[in-house]
Amino acid sequence: MENYKKTKIVEKPCPLPFTDLPPDIIEMKVKDGSKIRNLMGYAIGKMELDSVRQILFTGSGKAVSKTITCVEIMKRRLKELHQITKVLFKQIEEIWEPIVPEAGLDALTVKRNIPAICVLLSKDALDPQEPGYQAPGSFDAFWIKTLKAESQGQMKRKQGGGRGASSTGKHPRSAGGASGEPCAKS
């Protein structure tokens, strides 16, 4: 590839994975270089209006994590948002041209599939049977349950059972191996 340079990147149009979206839905296309502050200022301002009921966040490649961050900020700011998340792949074509055209090399076309995410947030209830659906507050309920289970596990560890607490633990010491004598090989 040292004899080639990338001259063009073509993104294949990818249809949105959601059906029945209103034609005037606000779509936040998150890019790798997008500033979260700018995206969220606009998106939150629009969602605070009574006339706006849904917003769609999309991102691909390196922008997937930034898209998720924006969605989580939005859900913390505006409670009671229903969410449907779709993960998909977007195809891009890279055109590579030879650096020295006289060398007799052909142009190359490289097709790549990159991950993409689409997240629909809605003030109105969405279909809970739809794959990727999250009800409002379900994330908080998950973490409360998880933290409660972790704290109970820590309490059990504090009550004993640490190293040397008893001679019959997970791995009881064998009579011959602990004293320094060589173990018999079978």
UniProtKB/TrEMBL annotation:
<comment type="similarity">
    <text>Belongs to the histone-like Alba family.</text>
</comment>
<dbReference type="GO" id="GO:0005634">
    <property type="term" value="C:nucleus"/>
</dbReference>
<protein>
    <recommendedName>
        <fullName>DNA/RNA-binding protein Alba-like domain-containing protein</fullName>
    </recommendedName>
</protein>
<dbReference type="Pfam" id="PF01918">
    <property type="entry name" value="Alba"/>
</dbReference>
<dbReference type="GO" id="GO:0000172">
    <property type="term" value="C:ribonuclease MRP complex"/>
</dbReference>
<dbReference type="InterPro" id="IPR051958">
    <property type="entry name" value="Alba-like_NAB"/>
</dbReference>
<dbReference type="GO" id="GO:0001682">
    <property type="term" value="P:tRNA 5'-leader removal"/>
</dbReference>
<keyword id="KW-0539">Nucleus</keyword>
<feature type="region of interest" description="Disordered">
    <location>
        <begin position="152"/>
        <end position="186"/>
    </location>
</feature>
<feature type="domain" description="DNA/RNA-binding protein Alba-like">
    <location>
        <begin position="27"/>
        <end position="87"/>
    </location>
</feature>
<dbReference type="GO" id="GO:0003723">
    <property type="term" value="F:RNA binding"/>
</dbReference>
<dbReference type="InterPro" id="IPR036882">
    <property type="entry name" value="Alba-like_dom_sf"/>
</dbReference>
<dbReference type="InterPro" id="IPR002775">
    <property type="entry name" value="DNA/RNA-bd_Alba-like"/>
</dbReference>
